[in-house]
């Protein structure tokens, strides 16, 4: 599994981890991305899925321990990707003269917390 912290890619699919250079299209969401291949697969799943009045979260499904352990790495990698992208969005806000107070408010944290988490200064 690639480590997003060392990937040279501009962005990678949050689902299959393929970098932008290895996919046709990459659609951006809030800190995440999905590639054309994963959209096609998701469309097949949705088209073939029976109507479900109450969708079940993946972690609430019946699963083996091996399946759960296999899911942990990709979930953690997605979290690292989102955190990295959040840092890039904060840097963008700073480049547009956003204050640490404004950034903190947007993130539901104090100015000090935003600065400590994203400034890179100590
Ligand atoms: Zn993908």
Task: Explain what you see.
This protein is mainly α and 122 residues long. The protein has one domain (20-118). 49% of the residues lie in helices and 5% in strands. The chain contains four helices and two strands. It has a two-stranded antiparallel ribbon with strand order 1-2. Strand 1 and strand 2 form a beta hairpin. Helix 3 (100-107) packs across helix 4. It is extended. The mean pLDDT is 88. The structure holds zinc ion (ZN). Zinc ion is lined by residues 13, 15-16, 18, 35, 37-38.
Uncertain parts:
none
What about the largest sheet? 2 strands, antiparallel
* Separation, N- and C-terminal Cα atoms: 32 Å
- How many E-type strands? 2
Biggest β-sheet: strands ordered side by side in the sheet: 1-2
| Domain module count | 1
Task: Indicate the mean pLDDT.
Answer: 88
- The DSSP helix count reads 4
Q: What structural keywords apply?
A:
2 strands, 122 residues, binds zinc ion, 4 helices, mainly alpha
Helices, strands, pairings?
Layout: E1 26-28, E2 33-35, H1 36-48, H2 65-95, H3 100-107, H4 111-118
Helix pairs in contact: 3-4
Bound molecules: zinc ion.
